[in-house]
Design goal:
Elements lengths: L12 E4 L4 H16 L5 E7 L9 H12 L2 E6 L8 H16 L5 E3 L4 H13 L4 H4 L5 E4 L2 E4 L7 H10 L16 H16 L3 H30 L12 E3 H5 L3 H13 L11 H8 L7 E4 L2 E6 L2 E5 L11 E2 L7 E2 L5 E6 L6 E4 L6 E4 L3 E4 H7 L4 H4 L4 E4 L2 E5 L10 E6 L9
Parallel strand pairs: 1-2, 1-4, 2-3, 4-6
Antiparallel strand pairs: 5-6, 7-10, 8-9, 9-10, 11-14, 12-13, 13-19, 14-17, 15-16, 17-18
């Protein structure tokens, strides 16, 4: 019924086990395979959202099934943040828990099937989604340190029901699935049955259309990769790990190619904005040369500085504060919310501290005399958003070095800064 060969080398198999029909069939299939073939250890994860009283009984049901199959079950309770879409908030909480559970190379199997693929396409069409939204759910994608796999995408819901009945499986019927106030439930219970009465192959054809759209998206992704390879050139080596693109290279593309390249680039960093919010890109691109525009997105923001656009998220969204005494300079110094620094070369052993700019700092440079740090940073084209984060090494009141800028030192030492994380976990 399913092919598990692509994932046999994974360290561990996990299954997202809700206790419903789809995941129950998938768990049974995986357990049967594991009994008869050499395969990775199999574990189940049940996410308890706490959204309805009936859900309190589900972990016990899932535990009984796992005990019967000899499979370890992990029950994880999550907090669902209220928002405009309860479905989306629950999904965000669920996938955050899955990312946390996966180790390097692990596989999380989920039970989406062909009818889910069809319903997703129709749902997104009704929302006016673009090609990236309409493309088929992939059979596998990255998730945290591992990957998510959907081995049932070629199976219909009816096939799963037939399998469950043939093997005497029991499963949970979620009461919320009958609530047609939720858009997906309405499509599943009211719309799709009527479509399939008139067009019996509707679900299969919708799923095939989603596959075609996914193929078209793959071609656009190849174009985006080529455009981004050019736009990614020239990134300053002083700021490793900080994502940026050359604005002029992007602006030379047609508007459609600009959006395509940015959608691909941003999709790996944040939830994409809808059509209305793409005006933020035009504002960022077309702002005056001396402006400092910001395009705020769901999981971070794009800024413009010195001819490049920069992606900031995670720790970058909060300014660092304070100063730290550096007692043991043989060890890297962690900077709260701002990465770490390490010292290379000779420097006084006592009385060192790391601080940030307050304004008015002076650097004394060989052959150039006393120079204002602000002017020096301007000369070196240091992005404006970096300047308040630059670690400064002091000996008493004397400024010895500026992180990652070897020309700005007053002693035989260098301050190497490992920048803070620019990562934001995506749902």
């Amino acid at each position: 019924m399913i092919n598990l060969t692509p994932w046999l080398n994974a360290p561990t198999w996990y299954i997202a086990f809700s206790g419903g029909l789809d995941s129950t069939v998938l768990l049974h299939l995986l357990a049967d395979y594991a009994r008869n073939h050499a395969s990775p250890p199999l574990r189940a994860i049940h996410i308890h959202h706490g959204l309805q009283p009936a859900a309190d009984a589900w972990p016990a049901h899932c535990q009984a099934i796992c005990d019967n199959l000899g499979i370890e079950l992990q029950v994880t309770h999550v907090q669902v943040t209220p928002g405009a879409s309860l479905e989306q908030a629950a999904r965000d909480a669920r996938y955050a828990a899955f990312r946390q559970a996966l180790g390097p190379g692990d596989i999380l199997f989920t039970g989406q099937h062909r009818d889910d693929q069809a319903e997703t396409l129709l749902f997104r069409l009704l929302r006016g989604a673009g090609l990236r939204g309409l493309a088929a759910m992939p059979g596998q994608r990255a998730l945290g340190q591992g990957s998510l796999a959907r081995p049932l995408l070629g199976c219909s819901r009816q096939q799963l029901q037939d399998y469950a009945k043939a093997h005497g499986l029991s499963w949970i019927e979620d009461p919320s699935n009958a609530d047609t106030q939720f858009a997906r439930n309405y499509l599943r219970s009211d719309v799709f049955p009527r479509l399939q009465q008139r067009w019996p192959q509707a679900a299969r054809n919708f799923a095939r259309a989603a596959d075609h759209l996914g193929e078209a998206l793959g071609l656009l992704d190849e174009l985006a990769q080529a455009d981004l390879a050019l736009a990614g050139e020239g990134a300053p080596v002083a700021w490793p790990g900080l994502d940026s693109l050359d604005l002029a290279t992007l602006a030379a593309l047609s508007p459609a190619r600009q959006r395509n390249a940015l959608q691909y680039w941003l999709s790996q960093r944040t939830r994409l904005p809808d059509t209305r919010h793409w005006a933020g890109w035009a504002d960022l691109r077309d702002a005056a040369a001396d402006a400092q525009p910001v395009w705020r997105l769901a999981d971070g923001q794009l800024l413009r500085s010195h001819g490049r656009i920069w992606w900031l998220s995670g720790d970058w969204l909060q300014p660092p504060t304070g100063q730290l005494a550096w007692v043991d300079t043989s060890q890297p110094l962690p900077l709260p919310g701002n990465g770490t620094v390490r010292l290379v070369g000779a420097a006084p052993l006592n009385g060192l501290r790391v601080a940030y700019r307050q304004g008015g700092e002076i650097v004394e440079l060989a052959g150039r005399g006393r120079r204002d740090l602000k002017r020096l940073l301007n000369e070196l084209h240091v992005p404006h958003f970096l300047r308040a984060r630059l670690p400064l090494l002091y000996y008493g009141e004397r400024l010895l070095a500026v992180a990652n800028l070897p020309g700005l030192v007053q002693a035989d030492c260098q301050l190497h800064w490992q920048l803070p994380t620019n990562a934001q976990g995506l749902s």
